[in-house]
Amino acid sequence: MSVLLALNGRDVSELLANDPDELERLLEEVRPLTLKVRPPADLRGVKLEGRDLRGAQLPGAVLQEGHLEGADLTGAQLQGAYLYRAQLQGACLHRAQLQGAYLGMAQLQGANFEEGGKLQGAVLCGAQLQAANLRLAQLEGADLRGAQLEGADLGGAQLQGADLHEAQLQGADLRWAQLEGANLTGANLAGANLEGADMRGAKFARAVLTGV
C-alpha cells in the first residue's frame, strides 16, 4: 500500500486515519520534522507554528485552517494543496511550489515568497497578503480577486493574466511587474509604485489610481 503520510521516513498513515491525537503529538515532538504525503492526505487544522518544514512534500494535501504561522516552508512542494483559511503569517516560502494551490481567505500577512515563489494558477481570492514579500513571484493566471495586498512587495512579479479584480494594493511596490492582460477592474492602487511595470492590455476600469 502506498504511503499516505510519512514522518521522518516512518509511515504514519494509520495514525492519520485512526489516531489523530497521537499524530498531533508526534508532529509536536519530532524535531527536525520531514513530512511527505500523497493525496488525499487530510491535515486540516494541523498545528505546525514555527516549525522547520523545509522541503516538505505536501502536494494535494488538505491543510484547511492549518496553523503554519512563522513556519519555514522553503522549497516545500505544495502543488494543488488546499490551504483555505490557513494561518501562514510570517511564514517563509522561499522557492515553494504552490502552482494551482487553493489559498482562498488564507492569512499570509508578512509572508516571504522571496526568490520567485511559484504560484501560477493559484487561487488567492480574499487572501490577506499585507506587507508580504512577493518580489519576482510567478503569479501568472493567479486568482487574486479581493486580495488584501496593501504594502506588499510585488517588484518584478509575473502577473500576466492574473485576476486582481477589486484587490487592495494601496502602497504596494509593483515596480517592473509584468501585468500584461491582468484584470485590475475596481482595484485600489492608491499610492502604489508602478515604475517600469508592463501594463499592456491590462484592465483598469473603476480602479483607484490616486497618487500613482
Short description:
By secondary structure, the chain is largely without helices or strands. It has helices at 13-18, 20-29, and strands at residues 5-7, 10-11, 35-37. The protein contains 2 helices and 3 strands, in the order ββααβ.
What labels would you give this structure?
little secondary structure; 212 residues; Pentapeptide repeat-containing protein; Pentapeptide-BTB/POZ_domain; 5peptide_repeat; elongated
Question: Can you put this structure into words, describing what you see?
Answer:
This is Pentapeptide repeat-containing protein. Pfam families: Pentapeptide. It comes from Emiliania huxleyi (Coccolithophore). InterPro entries: 5peptide_repeat (IPR001646), Pentapeptide-BTB/POZ_domain (IPR051082). The chain has 212 residues and is mostly loops. The protein has a domain at 5-33. Helices cover 8% and strands 4% of the residues. Strands 2-1-3 form a 3-stranded antiparallel beta sheet.
Distance between the ends:
57 Å
Number of helices: 2
Q: How is the main sheet built?
A: 3 strands, antiparallel
Number of strands: 3
Q: Trace the largest sheet across and list its strands.
A: 2-1-3
The value of Rg in angstroms is 18 Å
